[in-house]
Input
Amino acid sequence: MLIYNLQVMNTFLSKKFRFYSFFSMVLLVFVHGYNLHDRYMQPWTLVDEPLNFTTFTEYFLANGIFRFRIPMLFAISGYLFAMHDETPHWERIRKRTRTLLLPYFIWSIIGLLIAILLANWMVTRDIVYNTHLQPSDKKFGDYSIAEWVSAILWPTSFQLWFLRCLFIYNLLYPWLLKGVIKAPIIIFAIFGFFWLSTFGAILLEGEGLLFFSLGIWLCKNQKDVEVKPKWLNLPTAVLLFVVIAGFKTWLAFDVQYINAGRFFMFSFLHKVTILLGLLVVWFGCNGLVKYLMGKYWFVKLSSFSFIIYALHVPLITYFIDPFFRIIGFLPYYRIITFFVLPVLVILFCILIGWALRKTMPKVYSVLTGGRGFQ
Output
């Protein structure tokens, strides 16, 4: 889901950016396919189920190992945005309106229409209202004008928050650039605190601000992000990554309630896991990147990153329980659902993207903000 055309970057770095854009979207679908009783995950989310293979594996992956994705995408976006300072800022913002803001509203409406359609299907009606993705618990037919507006601004397709925040960071870019160049220690201390505390306001999320700014800093200081730093010992980082994610997962079953101390403990372990994941995945998977980005079929699939991102929710959210009913007779049906349903949703999204690009390329371009044609 990269913001710029990477054809201008004929380097291994461009391949890594494209690879991790696609890889992050694939993992995002699995995270949103998390199917334990409490499916709304925060760093401090506890599990009100017995510890077993299914519950441990899902939490360990979805709320641990896979959580590096969004910070990595924000860092890549900041790096790429900082590469094009020769273009006037407001000219770039006009382009971002087409590539970020317009898709945000279009896919918000599409997600809402999917919810309305499924709410009128007897098989999924209760699921739509019981998942509480919409801003009101009322039936859609009883919505007021204000509730319809709210349903579009704060969409059923909740993953779209990334586009909204990225647009805000793009607007703030001149000030972010000045801050990370002139006072990086102060800026990163403030943004680091926002990130550690999971700060969030109406239109500003601390989750992405730190890493978008980091991307700017890395670009403007011409840091070599392709070479592993000497201080990073990958085997040790991998071990810590897995152990800390596993320890946090075990705590989520062992702890009975959250207080202030436990809130900060869970948040800290969560953030350490993310940082380790970023380092391990970015510097430790170069061989995998080279191999897969050398495969024609994988490069073609990677062009559908945005359509996977935009379309997979609310589909996967609404179809977890129907999928349970289909395969519920099988042992370990929940862990099977966790691994199989996301694959089916990803394939469906790619199929829809391929069909739209093939038959209605102009429509596809509007829907994706011009992405997915390389």
